[in-house]
Q: What sequence folds into this?
């Protein structure tokens, strides 16, 4: 099995260990850093050079405990089983994502609202 990712990373050894040690288990490959949805929106706006105002709509509020308010990927199992750790920090990853989207706008239909 060959797994190829950004930057030409060859993950064949990682994939072999993954298959052997992690079958049937869920592994999160995230930064391990928590961020609120509001702070994430503000950070993305900042990286795009835009001011963002978070506006709540009382009619669209869902019942308490039914929404995700914060994001946190616990990568401890991936660290334990695979010796994996993130090579790109959260902010840098967002910066690279914003730049990639800017360079590849033709791949997106920004004028279409898709749910």
A:
């Amino acid at each position: 099995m060959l797994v190829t990712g950004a930057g030409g990373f060859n993950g064949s050894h990682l994939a072999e260990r993954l298959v052997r040690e992690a079958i049937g288990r869920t592994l999160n490959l995230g930064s391990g850093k928590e961020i609120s949805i509001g702070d994430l929106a503000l950070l993305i706006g900042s990286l795009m050079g835009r001011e963002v105002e978070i506006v709540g709509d009382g009619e669209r509020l869902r019942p308490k405990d039914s929404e995700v308010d914060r994001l946190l990927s616990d990568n401890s199992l991936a660290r334990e089983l695979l010796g994996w750790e993130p090579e790109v920090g959260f902010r840098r990853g967002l910066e690279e994502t914003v730049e990639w989207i800017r360079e590849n706008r033709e791949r997106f239909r920004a004028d279409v609202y898709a749910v």
Remarks:
- The mean pLDDT is 81.
- The CA atoms of residues 72 and 105 lie 28 Å apart.
- The longest strand covers residues 35-36.
